[in-house]
Amino acid sequence: MKSTEQSKEKLVIFDTTLRDGEQSPGASMTKDEKVRIAKALEKMRVDVIEAGFAISSQGDFEAVQAIANTVTESRICSLSRAMVADIERAGEALKGANAGRIHTFIATSPIHMKHKLQMEPNEVLEQAVGAVKIARSLIDDVEFSLEDASRTEFDFMCRITEAVIDAGARTINLPDTVGYSAPGEYGAMIERLLNTVPNADKAIFSVHCHNDLGLAVANSLSAVQAGARQVECTINGLGERAGNASLEEIVMAIRTRKDLFPVATDIDAVHIVPTSRLVSSITGFPVQPNKAIVGANAFAHESGIHQDGILKFRETYEIMKAEDVGWSNNKLSLGKLSGRAAFAARLEELGIVFDGKEDFNQAFIRFKELADKKREIFDEDLQALVSDVQMGTEDDVLTVIDLEVLSKSGQAPHAKIIVKYQDQEHSSESSGDGAVDAIFNAIEKLVNSETRLQLYSVNAVTQGTDSQGEVTVRLEKDGRIINGQGADTDILLASAKAYLNALTLMRNPGRLHPQLGGV
Q1: Rounded distance, CA 17 to CA 20, Å?
Q2: pTM for the complete prediction?
Q3: What are the pLDDT digits (tens) for 161-182?
């Protein structure tokens, strides 16, 4: 890896998109999807990738294991509660890692200890120390988190921090778990702790801030100024409730305001926008247009005064270059005459690798079909195409075979659909309030899922009237929330794909992620 700037201390970037980001309702990912994102993070030169919560499910264990066996340039981490079974499961998942880390945690605030853990402070301290010792017996790199640190009594925070460092923890994480703290207060807490704990110099102090009050990035940066040297963050600020500190905002704030921050990162920023789009595509969580760094309007200038200033001297209204974070056309110079070798080479450049020839063949067929429909194909089209292929290669997947929709002014739209399931075709038809409603009603006649539609959204994958539409459908049943995605130049077909994908995932427990807790 490249070294950080001379005279600057290194700030470790710890990405938890695959763990805390996945705790967003409906944002759960398959193993293959997690591996794709992990490879993108590796290409971005992220220092630590928290790949998942190994004990939470067999699917999560296999995802952590797959990432540990695939990624070599970033350190791979698994979360675990301060419990023996959790820690051992994390250690097992990380056996193949080139560099691994076990991240264990326990709640330390009075409200959590009393009402959630029902434990006394001394019991919590004893369990924390024991957990760190067990983890250190399995792996050299152990991180310990004081869950709800921002509401923890300071004296107890010092006691437990000193004790777990003595036990072998080399990273101490102090999360603002519920997004309660404010920047001055949070930074002061970090600085005071560093100056009070006698063995603080033997560990890197880390922060993990939630965005409930919209202060996650500000709190994280305040902590960095106070001495924290690891920031835990996610792509697009993804995370449970209001999300986490946004990786792209943290990295670019530090890079842009070098005069304020005595640290530098090793992040290769040109991969920020492509990774943002990949995460958005896989999770079905669109990026708002005015989102800093990665939003569609982040570098757009509508005002005439602004446009005039930009034309005369860019720095008048732009503090960063769009191309520095990966904004570009990313045009793929392939077409319907392109062969498999060129197609495979471009997929490899994008970090996309298929497990078997069948998936690659299906992707190549879809590419050819798309090339017949679109004049220009972009990298974003390929990402959407690959996601679509990976959603529909298993025997128990619900797949659209044919769709016919009649929509005429003054008449209720009517949809006829043929769906394939386990090598058998099933047909249905229905009317609805709109074309999409008719399609969903026809599907429900076949499956009678008893789910509730929570969200239906459409986003253009690229610019132009021939752009693929990427549809997200969010379904809820018995408290479980699942996102389904579908992409096609035909929005109605993409809608059917998305709904069927969500139904498939709703039936597949390997995709579901039980929320056991976190920092």
Answers
A1: 6
A2: 0.84
A3: 999 999 999 999 999 999 999 9
Residue type, 238: L
**Same structural domain, 351 and 203:** no
Boundary (domain end) residue, out of 243, 267, 283 = 283
Domain span including residue 196:
9-283
- pLDDT 10s digits, 452-508: 999 898 887 766 666 788 898 999 988 888 888 888 889 999 999 999 989 988 876
Give yes or no: residues 47 and 188 share one domain. Answer: yes
Residue 255 is predicted with a pLDDT of 96
Residues 411 and 384 in one domain: no
Are 143 and 105 part of one and the same domain?
yes
Same domain, 274 and 403: no
Task: Classify residue 419: in a domain, yes or no.
Answer: yes
Distance between CA atoms of residues 201 and 189, nearest Å: 16
Residues 386 and 440 reside in one and the same domain = no
SS3 assignment, position 137: helix
**E-assigned strand segments in 254-413:** 263-264, 331-332, 377-378, 399-406
Q: Which amino acid is at 381?
A: D
pLDDT in tens, 197-234: 999 999 999 999 999 999 999 999 999 999 999 999 99
Contact 227, 191 (CB under 8 A): yes
**pLDDT band, residue 25 (cuts 50/70/90):** confident
Is residue 51 included in any domain, yes or no? yes
Q: How many contiguous H segments (helices) and E segments (strands) does the chain have?
A: 16, 18
Domain-located, residue 81: yes
Residue 369 has φ and ψ, to the nearest 5°, of: -60, -40
Contact predicate 500/400, CB 8 Å: yes
Written as six digits, the tokens of 60 are: 């999560």
299 burial via Cβ count (<10 Å: 0-12, 13-18, 19+): middle
C-alpha 135: how far from chain center: 26
Closest CA to 509 of 396, 389, 401: 396
Per the structure, the count of domains in the chain is 3
DSSP code string of 108-129: -SHHHIIIII---HHHHHHHHH
Maximal CA-CA distance, the chain: 77
Tell me if 467 sits within 8 A of 476, measured CB to CB.
Answer: no
507-519 mean pLDDT: 52
Are residues 112 and 152 in contact, defined by beta-carbon separation less than 8 angstroms? no
Asked if residue 462 lies in contact with residue 6, where contact means CB atoms within 8 angstroms, the answer is no
131 domain residue, yes or no? yes
CATH number assigned to the domain comprising residue 49: 3.20.20.70
CATH number at residue 479: 3.30.160.270
- Are 181 and 227 part of one and the same domain? yes
Distances (CA, A) of 451 to 169, 333, 431, 475, 514: 45, 42, 19, 6, 19
Amino acid at 506: M
Q: Could you count the other beta carbons within 10 Å of the beta carbon of residue 377?
A: 23
Do residues 121 and 261 share a domain?
yes
Dist. CA 131–CA 119, nearest whole Å: 16
Q: Residues 164, 197: contact at Cβ < 8 Å?
A: no
Nearest of 200, 214, 145 to residue 173 by alpha carbon? 145
